[in-house]
Amino acid sequence: MSASPKPDLITVNVDGRDVAVPKGTNVIEAARLVGVDVPYYCYHPKLSISGNCRMCLVEIGMPAVDPATKAPIVDPGTGKQRINWIPRPQIGCATTASPGLHVRTNTAQIKECREGVMEFLLVNHPLDCPICDQAGECKLQEQATGYGRGYSRYIEAKNVKPKRTQLGPRVMLDDERCILCSRCIRFCKEVAKDDVLGFIDRGSYSTLTCYPGRQLTNNYSLNTVDICPVGALTSTDFRFKMRVWFLKQTDSIDPESSVGANTVVWSREGVVYRITPRRNDEVNDTWMADSGRELYKQNRAPDRLMVARVEGQDSTPAAALAAAADLLKPAAGAVAVVGSGRSSIEEQFVTRRMANALGAGAFLVGRSDPGDGLLISADRNPNVRGALVTGLVTNLPSERLTQLGEWIDEGKVRCVVSVGEDLLAAGLTEAQLARVAVVYLGTHANATSAIARIVVPTFTVLERTGSFVNQQFRLQKFFQAVPGPAGAIDDLTALTRLLSSVEGEYFPPEPAAIWPEMARAIDVLQGITFAGIPATGRLLDGSRWAGLPFPEGPGLHFQPAAKP
Amino acid sequence: MAAGTPVPREPLTFAERTYLPQILGGLKTTWRHLVTPKTTLEYPEQRPALPPGYRGVPTLVRDPHGREKCVSCQLCEFVCPPKAIRITPGAIPADAPTAHVEKAPQEFEIDMLRCIYCGMCQEVCPEEAIWLQNRYSTTGYTREEMVNNKARLYELGGTLPDEHLKWDRKKAAETAGNDRH
Ligand code: SF4
Ligand code: SF4
Ligand code: SF4
Ligand code: FES
Questions:
Q1: Residue nearest to ligand 3 atom 8, measured at CA
Q2: Chain B, nearest residue to A246 by Cα
Q3: Long-range Cβ contact pairs of A191-194 (< 8 A, separation 24 or more)
């Protein structure tokens, strides 16, 4: 037994191989580190241990020492220290690694245990995989194949339980499929802090249910669907829409607020079917809010802008951008650019350069709403910090464009470029807007797009590639999951084209191609390339902006800086 | 390219040079066919007898109680090598008599211009809902006509005997409830 390589690491032995693991690691995670799969259902890395499924049984042993002298007892046959194996298997999820711990997962006893546990789990299972949404990503299917016996010896009548219980507006429960792992219960209690689920009845009649008179309505309810290892909990929105094996997964970021929860977008042939959280232990663990999962519906919303317009006439994005350039160039010096806290940092950088080229004032519209203390923060723009980093703005944006309104009243501004912001909602009056020519680049129709001189339809976050800077000043990438509508144009393409046609620099409309210039021009981004940003993000040095009164309160993995 | 070794050509024997044995051999076959019974079919008036297990046009079938068997699990869509199948899954309304089956296709299309009659869909179907039956000839004037939609697939498929009736048994169990509670 080698000594621990580092003080906070301890060495354990899994199936004959030594591995150094951090203190407090359980046997499942330790085995994962050496590539040994310990099957489990009830264990979840972000929830408390309940140890009820018994799928993770392993054999545990400790090196033998003489009780009196504490000297190692050496096996004369092998010349190595003898291991005292506990005769009965132990659950791996609740066994914390201790120095010298020995684990065996490949013995006949363990194989038999797993077969036995699988057989019991399947005793009352309805086996309705053909109509079950979990099929294809079901732990029960996978582990029945990997560790089960492969045939059924059960001929008795199976238990009958409620099959279609609506637990809440977004979650459907099939009790026959539930394996009583209690993950959903622990999630509601420990993470969502909304303790509404529980078991009633005993033994094989145990049934998951909501407390009488309550419903699973909290904004995190769909996480229970994600962590349910079987098809007991399903999402009413995704239910029966598409099989998961057809869906392509694209990494993305939840644009709901400055938390920047990491997500996976599941799409098939250009249609998004669902959005689920992606694990990032520094940001959102394995969770995300329900509200962020519905954002894909915006892609095909009826008010989506599908065709460019110039002076009320239908046009193409290219022609509309050319017309916008013709409008902006002569007005240089009397232009205002309203950028967006929803734009990627690359788009904000190009917006800044465009404002420079036009001698324009740049604005941002703030958006705030109370946060929930978890994964939705008070700042409902995903990328205000990106605008600070790129210098698009130097202060926190207000929700109303009062200053711009004054400039318009004074006649200082003749043209306004809005990147997706509804100027009327942001406090400008119709009379003020009547005095300026508005160029609107946005995804959805609103009061501003209705009166804009030029409208260029653009892409939603699911249709673009770029990066956001979240409340922790963590730079995180998102990728295009689906193509945008035919009549629309990528924001970055639109902005770079506009920039080059108002005689600014030319940038290729690719985030990766803009990054070298960004890294050169912005000191906190120095040395960063787009490809080099890790999947879990990269922390930027935000100390320069530490004095700003950011609206965010405490949340998961986030503590606001102490107010001076 | 490397030159091949020339194969020496054997000189023809005298009999071969007369061509007579070959002509007679050929005529023997001709004469035999003159006297054996005719095998040519007057297609399309006459149709061949198909062997059991023949793989014709894939169809959807109903069970003896008229329930559509397909539950839109989309396994056939997944397995189909030329991607001929296209399914829009859907939920069965809660007030339907087969509400306990929960899921059925809203639309089901098989593109017969793509189908290669491999039978994988029939093989993979967990509900025994898709069968390659005896129809082998499909014609049409447009590409759209060559796509069998759900209505057409059930029309072609009809009813097949079902020995399991597993969904009926499921409903009976649901109605009966648990033994003791
Ligand atoms: S519903 Fe799912 S997560 Fe909840 S106890 Fe049952 S199997 Fe576990
Ligand atoms: S027979 Fe083969 S090719 Fe034709 S639909 Fe079925 S799986 Fe596809
Ligand atoms: S025909 Fe069979 S395999 Fe195809 S979707 Fe229907 S049930 Fe599934
Ligand atoms: S994972 Fe250990 S008992 Fe369930």
A1: B73
A2: B78
A3: A191/A46, A191/A47, A191/A220, A191/A223, A191/A287, A191/A374, A192/A218, A192/A220, A192/A221, A192/A223, A192/A374, A194/A218, A194/A220
Could you tell me which of A180, A236, A185 has the C-alpha nearest to residue A204?
Answer: A180
Contact A305/A452 with Cβ under 8 angstroms? no
Select the residue from A240, A242, A244, A245 to test the B interface by mutation, using most B Cβ atoms within 10 A: A240
Scanning every residue of chain B, which has its alpha carbon at the shortest distance from the alpha carbon of A244?
Answer: B74
- Give the residue from A124, A128, A200 with the most B CB atoms within 10 Å of its CB, the best one to mutate: A128
To the nearest whole angstrom, how far is the Cα of A317 from the nearest Cα of chain B?
Answer: 33
From first CA to last CA, the distance across chain A in angstroms is 52
8-state DSSP, A31:
H
Please list, residue by residue across A444-474, b when 16 or more beta carbons sit within 10 angstroms of its beta carbon and e when fewer do: bbbebbeebbbbbbbbbbbbbbbbbbbbbbb
Domain B58-163 class in CATH: alpha beta
**What residues of A are in contact with residue B71 (Cβ under 8 Å)?**
130-131
Element (H, E) at A324: helix A317-331
Ligand closest to Cα of A174 equals 1
Kind of pairing, strands A437-442 and A415-419? Answer: parallel
Going from the C-alpha of A349 to that of each of A339, A386, A393, A474, A499, the distances in angstroms are 10, 9, 11, 17, 11
Distance CA A352, CA B90 (A): 48
Q: Identify the burial level of A491 via C-beta atoms within 10 angstroms of its C-beta, where 0-12 means exposed, 13-18 middle and 19 or more buried.
A: buried
Tens of pLDDT, residue by residue over B94-151, are: 999 999 999 999 999 999 999 999 999 999 999 999 999 999 988 999 999 999 999 9
- What ipTM did this prediction achieve? 0.88
Mean predicted confidence (pLDDT) in A396-415: 94
Given CA atoms A302, A306, A309, A312 in this order, what sign does their dihedral have? Answer: negative
Cis peptide before B6 (omega within 30 of 0): no
Residue for token pair 């990328």 = A383
Pocket test for ligand 3, best of B76, B78, B124 (most atoms within 8 A of CB): B76
Our CA-based measurement puts residue A233 at a distance from the nearest CA of chain B, in whole angstroms, of 15
Interhelix angle for A317-331 vs A491-501, to 10°? 40
Question: Rounded distance, CA A510 to CA A521, Å?
Answer: 17
Confidence class of residue B164 from pLDDT cuts 50, 70 and 90?
Answer: confident
Give A325-350 pLDDT, tens digit per residue: 999 999 989 999 999 999 999 999 99
Q: Which helix (H) or strand (E) holds A328?
A: helix A317-331
In chain B, what are the helix, strand and coil shares in percent, each to the nearest 5?
30, 15, 55
Kindly identify which residue of chain A lies nearest to residue B181, measuring between CA atoms. A205
Ligand closest to CA A179: 1
CA-based end-to-end distance of chain B:
84
Q: Among all chains, which residue has been given the structure tokens 């194969």? A: B7
CB within 8 Å: A163 and B179:
no
Interhelix angle A511-521/A491-501, rounded to 10 degrees, is 60
Q: Which residues of A touch B103 (CB under 8 A)?
A: 130-131, 240
> Quick check: A504 pLDDT over 90?
no
Domain map (residue ranges) of chain B: 58-163
Query: What domains sit in chain A, N to C, each tagged with a CATH number?
Result: 9-118 (3.10.20.740), 126-240 (3.30.70.20), 300-545 (3.40.50.740)
